Amino acid sequence: MKADEICHVETTTFHNQLESENYPFESGRYWLFTSKVCPFAHRTEIARALTGLTKEIGLTITDAVQTAEGWNIEKRYESADSSACPVAGLKRLPELYQLAAADYAGRASVPVLFDTKTDTIVNNESAEIIRQFDAVGHTDQTPLYPKSKRALIDELIDGLANELITPIYRAGFAKDQQTYLCYFKKVFSYLDTLEERLKKTGPYLAGEQLTLADIHAYPHVARFDAVYHSLYRLNLKYISDFPGITDYMNRLGEIPAFANTLDLAAVKEGYFLACNQPTDGYVIPAGPVVDSKTGVRVVAFT
Predict the structure, then answer these.
(1) Crossing angle for the helix pair 212-223 and 264-273, nearest 10 degrees?
(2) Contact at 8 Å (CB) between 116 and 86?
(3) What share of the chain is helix, strand, coil (3-state, %, to 5)?
(4) Catalytic pick from 7, 38, 182, 275?
(5) Closest Cα to residue 49, out of 134, 157, 149?
(6) Is the pLDDT of residue 273 over 80?
C-alpha cells in the first residue's frame, strides 16, 4: 500500500449530504463505521458525541489492526458503543463499499457514513461528515461551525491539514533523508506556531468557543507522543514539551466526547501491528507513559 493511501491526501469518493433530497435525516437510518486507530475516523466519533447523535446514528468500530483484506467489521472493537454491522453477512469494510457501488475499486477507508435504507454510502470524508453532524445534531451547546467564525475555522483547519497532519505522514513514510527532514521540520515548526497561538487565543483554537477546528486537532495531537514520536521518527520533542499545547489537550481531555472516544492501547496496537505502516508489525512499544485522556506524555518511561 502506498504512503498516500495512508495519508488521506487522495480524494475521497462519496460526498453526499445529510438533509439533502436523497438523504433526509431520519433517526436510526444512518450508520457510522470507524476505527479507534484512525485519527480521521476519530473526528467523527467526537462529533457524533458532541452533537447528541449517539442514539440517532448507529456505530460500528472495526477491529484495531488493519490487514491486507481491509478493516474487520465482523470482529469489531468491543465497547458498549460499538454495535454489530447492520448489514448481515458482511465481514470486511471493502464488502460494504462494494455493496454501495458494485464496481468500486478504490480505497476502503474509514470513516464511512452509511444509509441503511438504500444500502449506500452517504459520505466517507471526515471533514464533511463532522460538518453535517453539526448541522443536523441536537445539542444544547453552541454550533461547532458558527457562521460568524467559519472563515477563521476554515483557515485553522487548512493550516492543521497542510502544516501538521499531512507532514506527519509524509515524514513517517519518507524514503529518503531529504524528504524526511523537510516534513520533520514542517511538523515542529507548526507545533511551535500552535504553541504561540494558544497563548493568545484563549482555551480553544478559535478563541472562547469549541469548534470543528479543535475536533481536527485533537485526534492527531493525541497520537503524537505515543505513536508518531517513535513510529514516524518525529522525535525532536514530545507534545509534553509544549506547555501551551499540553494545557489545551488537558482542557479537551476533560470533555467526555474527546476523552471517551480515545483508546490509546487500541491506537498503538493498530499502528504498530498494521500491514501498511513503517514497522515490522511484531512488537507494540511499552512506552512512553501517556495520559489516557490526552495522549500527552506524563512521565519518563523506566
Answers:
(1) 60
(2) yes
(3) 45, 10, 45
(4) 38
(5) 134
(6) yes
Q: Which fold has domain 3-136?
A: Glutaredoxin (3.40.30)
Q: Give the type of residue at 187.
A: V
pLDDT value at 254 more than 90: yes
Q: How far is CA 197 from CA 163, 192, 217, 286, in A?
A: 14, 9, 13, 33
Nearest residue to 266 (alpha-carbon basis) of 98, 44, 34: 34
Q: 154 pLDDT exceeds 60?
A: yes
Active site residue 38: yes
Distance, in Å, from the CA atom of 83 to the CA atom of 116, rounded to the nearest integer, reads: 14
Radius of gyration of the chain (CA): 18
Inter-residue contact 130 to 215 (CB < 8 Å): yes
The candidate with the shortest Cα–Cα distance to 214, out of 191, 163, 248, is 248
Helix (H, G, I), strand (E, B) or coil at 112: strand
Kindly report the pTM of this predicted structure.
Answer: 0.93
The whole-number average pLDDT for the span 72-92 is 95
Beta-carbon contacts of 135 under 8 Å, excluding residues fewer than 6 positions away, are 18, 19, 145
Q: Angle CA(128)–CA(130)–CA(134) in degrees, nearest 5?
A: 115
Of 229, 245, 217, nearest to 285 by C-alpha is: 229
What does the mean pLDDT of the chain come to? 92
More confident residue, 30 or 283: 30
Residue 202 is predicted with a pLDDT of 81
Summarised one tens digit per residue, pLDDT across range 194-244 is: 999 999 988 999 999 999 999 999 999 999 999 999 999 999 999 999 999
Domain extent listing, the chain: 3-136, 147-299
CATH topology of domain 147-299: Glutathione S-transferase Yfyf (Class Pi); Chain A, domain 2 (1.20.1050)
